[in-house]
Write a structure and sequence with these properties.
It is built from 19 helices and 20 strands.
Length: 571
Amino acid sequence: MGGKRKVLSAAMAAIVLSASLAACSGGGNGDDSNSSGAPENSKPIIVNGKIEPAVTITMVRGEDPTAKFKNGETYYDNVHTRWAEEALGVKLETLWTSPTADTSYDTKLKLMLSSGDKLPDVFVSTQSNTINLFIESGKLIDVGEAFEKYASETWKAAMAETPEAWYPFMQGGKKYALPLLRPTMGTQSPLWIRQDWLDKLELKAPTTIEELEAVMDAFVNRDPDDNGLKDTYALDFGMKDALNGYPIGDSSWIFGLFGAIPELWYPGEDGKLQYGSIQPGIKEALTKLSEWKQKGYIAEDIALHDFNKVAENTASGKVGMLGGQNWLMVYPGALMLATNPTAMYAPYPLPQGDNGKNMRRIDNAHTGAIMISKDISEEALQAFFHYQNALYESYNTEDSFLFRGFQDGYDYVIKNGKAVVEESQIPGGKIPTMKYTISGAQTVFTSKLTEAALKRAKGEELTNRELASFASSGILAVDDSNPLEKITDAATLVIATQTETDVPNYFQGPATPTMTSRNELLMKMQMDTFTEIIYGKKSADVFDDFVKKWKSSGGDSITKEVNDWYVSVKQ
C-alpha cells in the first residue's frame, strides 16, 4: 500500500473505533488467566484507534478458489493485512494456507488437532464436523464470555438479530465459536419462468396450482421453443439422493404448496421440532408430482437430476419453470443467453398453495465459524475483537470512502468524488478484499444489508452508510452495464413479498447418536419410497407405511434427540 496512501485518517479512526476502545478498557484483573480460558496479560494501549505497539494475531487460511490478487500480493501480505497493521495496530500473521475446494484445508486443521500441534490464535471453518471436533477437544475458549466483554455494540446488535446462529456452536450453555453471518435474503426461491415462452404462448404467470398446471401443459405441448419438437420440460428440480439443498432446482416450494418441506426440522403446532419428510402434506405433494410426471411435465429421468443436471438443462434452454436463488440468471442463465440471446427467465411470486398454504426453504444465517484457541494471549484476544469491531463499524460510518479495509484501487476507485465499481474502470481489475479478512467473508448486519439491498433493487439512491454496508459485503453498487445483476435485484424484490413462507432448518446441532447410526438407512428409505410414488410404481398410500417404518427404525429416537438439543440451546 505504501506510506503515501492514507487508507484511514487518525481522526476518523478515533471516532469510528471508539467502541473498540471502550470495549477493550475492561481488560485484565491482574490474574494469570481469565475464565474464558485465555491467559491474562496487560491490556493493549489504543491511541487514536490504533494499538501501540502493534499486536500480532496468528492464523491459518483456507484458500478460496474465487479469491484474486494483484500487485504481487498474497494471503500473507496484501492491502488488507497492511491496512490492519497501519490503521488498527493489528498484525495478521498467516502461518499456512491450504485449498478449501478439495477439503485439504479442513483435513489439515484436523491433523493439527490430532497431532497435538499448537493451535493458531484464530482460525475458521465452514464444515460443521470440523468445528464440532474442535469444540469437543476442549482447546477453544468460551467465546460467549469474550464476546460480551469485548464486542462492539454494533456487532452485538447484528448478532442479536439472529440468535439462532449461535446454536450450532453451543455446548453446555456456553458458546465456543463465533458465527460467520450471511445475508439470507435472496436464498429463497421465487418462481422462475421463461418470460419469452409466456409471451409467445400469450400466457400469464400462474397464481394458483390450477393456473400453474395450465402453464406447464402449454410449455410441454405447445412447442414454446418453436423447433417443431416435443422436447421441453415444464418444470425441473433436483432430487438425486436428496430433495433439499439445491440453490438451483429447489423443490421446497413445490412441497410447500401442500404445507410441508422434506428433510427440514421445523416447529409443529406444539412448538416442538418435527421432521418435514413425514408430514401429511408430503403425501399430497408426491401424489401431484406423480400426476405431473405421468403428463410429461417433468423429465423422465427426474430421479437423476442434481444441481449440475438442472443447471445443464436450464442452460440448454429446455426448462420452462424452476425454483432457484436470486442469482439464477447469472448462473446458469448467462450460459443460456450465450446460445439463445432472446431467452429470458423472469422471477414471479409463488402461486398460492393448497388451501392457501405456502412454504419454501431459506438458508440458515451462518456459513461457518471463527474459533479461538485457549492459548491466545489476552492482548491478542483484545486485538482480534478490536479488528472485528472495526470491520463492523462500516455499518455506522457516513464516509463512503473509508470502508474499513476495502480499499481504493481494489473494490472501487474514486473518480470525481464518487466510488466507481465497474471492473473496466479499476486498474488491474476489481478485487473483493473481503476475501483477505480473517473470516474470508463479509461482515453481516442482516437488517441493514437487507434494507439497503431492497432500496438498491428499487433504484433508490443509497446513503453513504448504505454504500459502506455494501462495501463490507463486497458489493458497492449494481453495475449498470450488466443487466443480469438487475434481474437479481428484481428477484430479490419478488422474494421479499413472500417472506412469511420462509422456513429455515431449525436443527443446526451436530449429528445425534441415532442420526449417526441410522440416518443413511432412513434417507435411502425416504428416497426409494418417494421415487416409487413419483414414478407411479407404487400408490401414494405407501407413504403411510414409510412414516411408520421411519418412526420405528430410529426416527422417533432422532426426533427426541433433536428436541433435547433444541431445548438445550434455547435456554
